[in-house]
Amino acid sequence: MSFDRSWHGTGTATVTNASTAVTGQGTTWQSFGIRQGDYFLAGGDMVPIASVQSNTGLTLTDAWPAATRTAQPYKIIPASDAVRTVVASREAIALLTNGNVSAISALANVVADRLPYYTGPGAAALAVFTPFARTLMDDADTAAAVATITGTGAAATRLAALCRVVADWNAAVENGWYMGNGAANAPGTGWFMGEVIAHNALYVTQRLHAFTTDTATDAKSYERRMRNGVWGAPLPIRATQGELDALYQAKLAYTPVQQGTGVGQLTNAIKMGWDNTRLRVTVDSADLGFAWLSGQGAQSLIANGYKRLPDGFIVQWGNSALASADVGVQFPLAFPSNCLAVTANVMSPGTAPALFCMVDQLNAASFVARVRSDAGAAVAATIRWMALGY
User: Fold this and answer.
1) Which residue in 21, 64, 143, 379 has its CB near the most CB atoms, within 10 A?
2) Taking the complete model, does pTM exceed 0.85, yes or no?
């Protein structure tokens, strides 16, 4: 083995058994020019140096085989240039013979516009590398690449970072993004911006938005369509919840019932409709009959009056002064079909004898009231009564 005659031993060094790390104390390894391939010598043992990190730190190629040495003298013996040349040559040859370079050299049919690439360790193939691809590869940044892809004409403007400005929306017929302030054929005044979707020159859709004057209840979004070369009128697009509320809630003029949102309520479909006589209710497919409404049915809420319920049932009441013991009492409203029952009580002044009232000759229009004392005598009195029927 050949060494240079000079050696380096400034300071002391610490090296641990079975470790590759060497730490210097007062050393100048990096400044002196210690390099990979030089040799670290201490106590009669020598190991090649793999790398030098600093003036006080280096790494050996192999673990230190001897006992640990702490802040002990050492020597670093530089390898000769001839040895370094041989080592470098061997490393270069190893790299050239690892299969990767030979994979490139083994490629067949190498012609113009081809680019070699690796398909795996020691394996390579050729890809087509067109003149256009070469113009894209030499672009310095994204903007240059976009300009190469889209060109420098209208397409580049329509697909650029900002919308293309138009003076007439009828002229915006190619795919892209546009904007215009006071442009002709806009859905309204002021700024509009939007996208254009083109099937061909005769069928085009524009979606436009007045982005400077929109509100939560008016998004000012529109869609225009060209069919067979003829533009249609702009159609408003309801884009926000506020717009939908303003459009439909106002027509109701009240807050509608929210189905199935109350405590313990189910999500059954509730349906109400008019059957030409009364309001009818259905839950899912079950008919619940008629809905009773406070304003439905005739009534007379006076001393001698009546109330007709929505299903046709009638309640009647009254006070009648009987000049004699047995007197007929007329109902305020004759029952259309039948009187089911009448109950009557004597409005007693609270003095003896005790009185009670019997009902007789009951029909749809009247009944006969008979007042008697507890002794069975016929007595004239005032009675209060109630009748039920339909």
Assistant:
1) 64
2) no
pLDDT of residue 137: 85
Q: For residue 273, what are its two tokens?
A: 């409709």
Across 213-232, average pLDDT: 90
**Amino acid present at 102:** S
Each residue's pLDDT tens digit, 131-181: 888 888 888 887 777 777 766 555 555 666 788 899 999 999 999 999 999
pLDDT digits (tens, 9 = 90+) for 190-218: 999 999 999 999 999 999 999 888 888 78
Decide: residue 137, CB within 10 A, 0-12 exposed, 13-18 middle, 19+ buried: exposed
Give the bridge partners for 42, in sequence order: 45
- Contact of 40 with 63, CB cutoff 8 Å: no
For residues 9 and 75, is the Cβ–Cβ distance under 8 A? yes
How far is Cα 249 from Cα 239, in angstroms, rounded to an integer?
Answer: 16
Tokens of 43: 């106590």
Long-range contacts of 369-378 (CB under 8 A, 24+ apart): 369/320, 369/322, 369/326, 369/327, 369/328, 369/329, 369/344, 370/325, 370/326, 371/322, 371/325, 371/346, 372/325, 377/353, 378/324, 378/325, 378/326
Residues 6+ apart with CB under 8 A from 373: 353, 354, 355, 379
Largest separation between any pair of C-alpha atoms in the chain: 159
- In the DSSP assignment, the letter for residue 171 is G
Rounded Cα–Cα distance for residues 144 and 117 (Å) = 25
> Contact at 8 Å (CB) between 4 and 78?
yes
Residue labelled with tokens 């929210």:
258
